[in-house]
Amino acid sequence: MLPSMLGKLLLFFHLVGAFVLVGSLTHNLVIVVNYLKNKFEKTQRAHLYTKIALITYAFEFVIGALIYPSFRVHVRAEYFDLQLPWATGLFEVKEHWAAIGLALMIVYHYVGKNIDFSEVKKMTLPYLILGIILFLTIWYLIGAGFYLTTLKSI
Question: Could you give the 3-state DSSP secondary structure of residue 41?
Fold first, then answer.
């Protein structure tokens, strides 16, 4: 388990990483929306944003895994399981969506890197929908994580 100060520092980096992830995916989605309007001038940036999003998502996943043992003992077992069992359920749902999101992010990055949407326009809408699902998943993870963090800190 992590010392308290190191756990808090990792939690802070987890938060910062979430903002980088949301920012890179948001910028990418704006570019993909422009693909629907036949504007393909920023494809290199789109590739960069998906690469940043994938790396950041993996970083977030690793940081979360490092924090998890301390959370499991000091927050979940000592607090959530005893006083707020529904919060344990919310956390479990959050973790399942994080794993699903990682898989979706890998697919999203792979498709975005390997398809020229100016030539295969029929793939643009499904790609955009996948990006929106990822965007909503990430915001759910951030919202649930923030809410669960506030339950223990109040």
Answer: coil
